[in-house]
Amino acid sequence: MSHISSYVVLIIYYTLNWISAAIYRITGIKIGKVDKNTVLRRFSNEEKYGEHGLFSNDIADSNWNEAFSMLLSCWQKDEQLHAFGRMFEVNEITITRLRERQVICNALRRNPSINMIPVKRPIFIVGMMRSGTTLLQRLLAEDPDNRALKYYEIMKAIPPEEVRQGQADPRMQMAATYIDIMGTVDPAFTTSKHFFEVDTPEECIQLLERSFISKTALMFMHNSDEYRQWLSDRSKEDMLKVYRFYKQQIQLILYTAHESSSRRRLVLKDVFHVLFLESLLELFPEACIINTVRNPVDLIPSTCSMTEGVTHLYSNIDGKKLGQRMLTIVGYFADALVKFRRDFDRLSSSCSGRKIFMDVQYRDLVDAPIETMQRVYDHFQLPLSTELRAKFEAYLKANPQNKHGKHEYSLKKYGLTEDVIQRRFSEYTSYFNVRP
Predict the structure, then answer these.
(1) Do 8 and 181 touch, CB atoms closer than 8 A?
(2) Radius of gyration of the chain (CA)
(3) Residue of 194, 152, 155 whose CA lies nearest to 310
């Protein structure tokens, strides 16, 4: 997107929100209604109820409609959403996810052999946000035997059918546009906070969002208590259906990239997986799971700063409320991880089978990355050659910490103190022996 187009987005963003706020003060009416019917009106009856419509789908998880209804119901109750957030970040993105879901299901229906594409011993990085997960994923992606999903593939699983061989993949331009929008609203977001490009490895959360199992809602909804409780109530069987569709999307991405016979290990990343590790491990029994751990006193304000940038797209910012919200959400993730690992580690302590989990300290990864990678490969009994070690070193030399600017943040801005954070995360820091 050009600089001129970026400024146009910024003008639309501020103008729409200003006009909407003025209308609301005068009339009490909000521009942009968030509800299920508003979203579904954008689809024809054929698209909804036809032979291969949204509501007659026999390919993917059958519980998506319940999740879709709950998600929109919770967004509808968020009084802090501004007009841009309601119209674009909730309604338009929900519509986009529904359409993408339908395209994916139709592709799976036309090519049932996609379900047979192997997903060999995937590596899942499930550490808390801002704990070194991006560095670890990008280092692992340097290994020719590994395969990370790229941002443009995650955003749109398959290119439009009319693209001919040799043509530029339009998904890359679509991904670049969204990156530019985020960078326009918060210039630091795509540089010092979290530098990424259309073809860099990224979080796989979009694959779950298409089942309306939403990390986005947890992070940006002002009161996510109801949605968080609904997520906690999901059974193992409910989430197995979701993760089957998640796996099918990975297989479809490999198929589209002409990698159907690839034996490379997938490298996947998102903290959201900690909520459903039992279902994940049943569907991916060969998985290697890495938990990066960092001192919450540093992790929490960094997460607040990162989240603040994207929150602008949904609502206005109150730093202290944002701090409390992140304390709650990151605490929710940390509690789920500790609970699962405590039970899992106790049961597996007497077994001599292969190792599934590994904890990696953030300071080790940053201060001694090559030695840390050696320990990761040794732990999972993966070969680390001299050539691969050189690849890691070359990546680190080309991408030093703070290359795109230093990420500055503070506890005070978000109304937090070290003591409050240490008390909230005492179980997390104790169980994983988190070092300063």
Answers:
(1) no
(2) 22
(3) 194
CB-based contacts of 131, cutoff 8 Å, min separation 6: 292, 293, 294, 299, 362
- Please write down the HEC assignment for all residues of 121-157: CCEEECCCCCCCHHHHHHHHCCCCCEEECEHHHHHCC
CA geometry: angle at 381 spanning 239 and 432, to 5°? 60
Instruction: Output the six-digit token pair for 68.
Output: 């879709």
| Burial of residue 413 (number of CB atoms within 10 Å: 0-12, 13-18, 19+) | middle
Please give the pLDDT value at position 57: 62
Q: Kindly report the backbone phi and psi dihedral angles of residue 167, in degrees, each rounded to the nearest multiple of 5, phi listed first.
A: -75, 155
Residues of the chain with pLDDT under 50: 1-4
pTM: 0.93
Main-chain phi, psi angles of 33, to 5 degrees: -90, 130
In the chain the first and final C-alpha atoms are separated, in Å, by: 41
Q: Tell me how far apart the alpha carbons of residues 24 and 10 are, in angstroms, rounded to a whole number.
A: 21
Instruction: State the Cα–Cα distance between residues 69 and 66, nearest whole angstrom.
Output: 5
Cα gap 191→197, rounded to integer Å: 10
Angle at which helix 3-27 crosses helix 170-185, to 10 degrees, equals 60
What is residue 33's three-state secondary structure? coil
